[in-house]
Amino acid sequence: MMFDNLGEKFERIFKKLKGEASITEKNIRDAMREVKLALLEADVNFKVVRDFTGKVTEKALGQEVLSSITPGQHFIKIVHDVLVEVMGGKSAPFELQQSKVNTILLLGLQGSGKTTFAGKLARFCSKKGWKPLLVACDVYRPAAIRQLKVVGEQAGIPVFEKGQTKPLGIVKEAMDVARTEGHNVAIVDTAGRLHINEVLMDELVELKKFLSPEYTFLVADAMTGQDAVKSASAFNEQVGIDAVCLTKLDGDARGGAALSIRSVTGKPILFSSIGEKMTDLEMFHPDRMASRILGMGDIITLVEKAQETFDEKKAQEMQKKILRQSFTFQDFLDQMKQVKKMGSLKDLMSMIPGVGKQLKDVDIDEAEFGRVEAMILSMTMEERNHPEILNGSRRLRIAKGSGTSLQDVNAIIKQFEEAKKMMQKMMGATGVLQKLNPFKKKRKEEAIATKKFEKEQQKKRIKKKKKKKR
User: Fold this and answer.
1) Is residue 94 situated within a structural domain?
2) SS3 label, residue 218
3) Which domain holds residue 17?
4) For 127-182, what is each residue's pLDDT tens digit?
5) Are residues 154 and 22 in the same domain?
6) Same domain for 313 and 430?
């Protein structure tokens, strides 16, 4: 992952401070020298590094850290808070209006992943209840329109195109079609620029003037580091942007763009693209990203992914099955499919505090899911629901049917039985999964909101009674 190297360096610095008997001015300054080098090596803008280290040092040298019972932990908190501040503090809002066709103009250099991002954003809007339309205005790059059509098919979103005609004419017709067909979001994919070109910039200015878009997004490749920051500044100066959307955050580059863009351009990062699938798009949360960089995990995003993917009713039924020990291979297959929808297993595990570090050098073979799936699909429905009937001859048939060995089938049956026992413990009243249950949290929040509403209503009724008495 992009921030792995930076995270490891932070971890080593913090480990040294935790080992100190007390935090002094000297060891804080020594630590900040190492932090400075770590950030510069991560390709963070030098001005941002200077401001970051200055703020951390200023706060760390205050009495609050020096007199803290656990100064090492307090120092980590300061670094976390300043990281959040550098990346924008609060998450930027993404709000659309119900009463009109909302337009979103996408800008970017060639190769930034803009067309794929357009499809992901359209799917994101669709999932939120909007009816998006993709508009193909990249009329210069060969096969760009075809690429957007493929992306649109993958995302399940219609694409409006008029071939290689003038972009302004395409946009005018697209807006008429959007209004006629009831689309309330139009996402305009413009031509990518190899460099900042005056003629093409004028075209973007013309499109923006006609559309008056709700959002103008610059789509930037996070792997290009400070080049992404420079292009963001140039597009902002010449066209004007509302936010930056970073692609390829799952790459292994140094990550300086994510830590520099807000400070250099003054524009927030709104979305981050973290994979190849149409579902691999997240709202950018500075606090969560800071936690990931510092190896603290990201339980909130993990819970949100679970809420989006899993059906509450089915999840409750599954919990009952696990507790009754009636969990079957068919249930296991259904759960595997749900987990696959959430994304890469290694990415999901890295969101659990402490687990990501343990998995750094572990090679998680995602293809193993396919092998297990093949074995379960080679079972009859009766065998899936009653694993206890799987004798030697049945196991041999399953091995042949799935292209695996008898040893593989024996191993998966044994692992399934062990997993059942482990899940029963974890799903119990005091189990860790019960504590992380997103639906339980959701119901608790709803109950608090209901109680609050009832109290407010009661206060209003009391006020009315008092008025009547008067």
Assistant:
1) no
2) strand
3) 4-86
4) 888 999 999 988 887 788 899 999 999 999 999 988 888 889 999 999 999 999 99
5) no
6) yes
Assess contact for 28 and 60: CB atoms under 8 A: yes
The CA R_g of the chain, rounded to the nearest whole Å, is 27
DSSP one-letter code for 276: S
CATH number, domain of 423, equals 1.10.260.30
Helix (H) or strand (E) holding 273: strand 269-273
Q: Which residues, in sequence order, are CB contacts of 345 under 8 Å at separation 6+?
A: 339, 364, 366, 369
Quote the CA–CA distance of 466 and 470 in Å, as a whole number: 6
Is the domain of 428 the same as that of 285?
Answer: no
| Sign of torsion over alpha carbons 260, 261, 262, 265 | positive
Residue-wise pLDDT for 232-242, tens only, equals: 888 888 888 89
Return the residue matching tokens 């008025």.
467
Quick one: 216 and 248 in the same domain?
yes
Flag whether 213 is in a domain: yes
In total, how many domains does the chain have? 3
Q: Which residue has the higher pLDDT, 297 or 455?
A: 455
CA distances from 393 to 189, 317, 389, 390 (A): 57, 33, 11, 8
Nearest to 192 by CA among 126, 295, 117: 117
8 A C-beta contact, residue 135 and residue 213: no
Is position 457 within any domain?
A: no
User: Is 303:297 a contact under the CB 8 Å cutoff?
Assistant: no
- Full strand arrangement of the beta sheet holding 132-137: 159-160, 132-137, 185-190, 102-107, 215-221, 243-247, 269-273, 281-283
| 257 and 323 inside one domain | no
Pairing, β 185-190 against β 159-160: unpaired
Strands 159-160 and 269-273, bridge-based pairing: unpaired
